[in-house]
Amino acid sequence: MIETDQPEVGVIIVAAGKSQRMSGTDKIFAPLAGQPVLLRVLQPFIDCPGVDRIVVVLNNRNYDEGKALIVQQNWEKEVAVCIGGRRRQDSVLSGLKLLGDCDLVVIQDGARPMVTVKLIEDGLEAAKETGAAIAAVPATDTIKTANAEMIARETLPRDSLWLCQTPQVFLYNVLIKAYREATAEVTDDAQIVELAGGKVKLYMGSYDNIKITTPADLAIAETLLKRRKG
C-alpha cells in the first residue's frame, strides 16, 4: 500500500484528557523517574528515525504548561502543539488538521510512557501492508460480561481476546476518510476505521506498555523503567 521505502510519517500525541483518577494531578506532568510523563512519551518518537513530525494535543487547562515544557527541549525534530476537543476523536481531528498531509499517521496516548522505538517501527511496518495497525497483547485474565446488577452473564473465549494499546498507525488517507464519515462516539481510532469498513491488523504490543490512569500506575511504571535500565 506504500509505494516508497521512506514514507512521510506524522505523529499525534493525544494528551487532552482530564486525569480524573489522578487525585488532582495532571498525569502528563507527573514525575516519572525524574521526567514528566509527557517527555517520557515523546522521547521514543524523537529518537525514531522513521518519524518526521509530531503534534501534541493538549486541553485548555494544560496547554500553556505543556507547550512551555516542549519548547524548552530544543529538539531538532518538529513538535507542534494544539488544543483538543471534548471527545478523544475531536482531539485527534484537531491534531490531524495541524499535522497536514503525510503518508502514515501514528496515534499515541499521552499517558503511555513505556512506548519504545521498536513498538513504533513495528507499527509502521504493519500499517504499510494493511493500511491500519494497532499494538495489542493477548488477554491473560478470564473476562466475563455482566448485567446492571453485576451478575455474570457470559465468559468470553480468552484465545480470541486482545487488549489494545497505542501506537495505532494508519495510512493518512484511510484515517482522514474515516474521520470525515464518523458519527458515533468511539474509544479509539481503530474503531473509527472499523466503522468505516477498514481492516485493522493487530501487531504484538508489550505488557510493559501500560497506561497511566491512577497514581498506582506511576509506581508500576517506575519499577518497569528501573528493570529496563537494569
Description:
With 230 residues, the chain is an alpha/beta fold. The protein has one domain: Spore Coat Polysaccharide Biosynthesis Protein SpsA, Chain A (Alpha-Beta Complex). It has seven helices and eleven strands. The chain has helices spanning 37-47, 63-71, 88-99, 117-130, 172-181, 189-195, 215-229; strands spanning 9-14, 31-32, 35-36, 53-58, 78-83, 104-109, 132-138, 144-146, 152-155, 162-171, 201-204. Strands 5-4-1-6-10-7-11 form a seven-stranded mixed sheet, with helices on both faces. Strand 2 and strand 3 form a beta hairpin. 40% of the residues are buried.
Provide mean pLDDT, rounded.
92
Strand order of the largest sheet: 5-4-1-6-10-7-11
- Could you tell me the CATH topology label: Spore Coat Polysaccharide Biosynthesis Protein SpsA, Chain A
Overall helicity: 25-40%
Q: What is the number of strand segments?
A: 11
**Helical/strand content category:** alpha/beta
The major β-sheet equals: 7 strands, mixed
Shape from CA axes?
A: globular
The low-confidence runs, each spanning 5 or more residues with pLDDT under 50, are none
Q: Please trace the helix and strand order, writing H or E for each element.
A: EEEHEHEHEHEEEEHHEH
